[in-house]
Design brief:
Length: about 140
């Protein structure tokens, strides 16, 4: 987690993959996948400044895969849904970028943006259904 704290998000994502590989099946799988997905999402925020659509798309795919794995590991955990919401928000913006070629013009794909909002609703529902597993300490 130290690499994530100092902004080395791609390195942090690889570190979390090592945790997942070495401790697969552990009760903390959802958290490890979530942290990996969050690392990729942080990477995307940096890549956006570089206007690198190809790397943004690769990082989005990796974030989505990790967050879906977190969700599969524990469906009552709300944070993966929140991360998926951000993933789809970024993806809606990426589709707009691919349409316009302009990183600074805020074009969004509305269908993908709706998916982002659907994940927000799922995050709220999971938090309400299992409040004890969604407390941040």
């Amino acid at each position: 987690m130290a690499t994530q704290e100092i902004g080395e998000y791609e390195k942090a994502a690889r570190t979390f993959q090592g945790v997942i590989d070495n401790y697969a099946g552990d009760e903390m799988d959802a958290v490890a996948y979530l942290m990996q997905g969050a690392s990729y999402l942080q990477t995307i925020s940096l890549l956006w400044r570089q206007c690198d659509a190809a790397r943004i798309e690769t990082a989005l795919d990796a974030a989505q895969k990790a967050l879906e794995a977190a969700n599969e590991a524990d469906e009552s955990y709300s944070r993966p849904y929140s991360g998926l919401s951000l993933t789809y928000f970024y993806r809606s913006r990426l589709l707009g970028l691919q349409d316009t070629g302009d990183c600074y013009y805020q074009a969004y794909d509305l269908a993908t943006l709706r998916q982002s909002l659907d994940y927000i609703d799922q995050a709220k529902a999971a938090a309400l259904e299992s409040p004890d597993t969604n407390v941040f300490i």
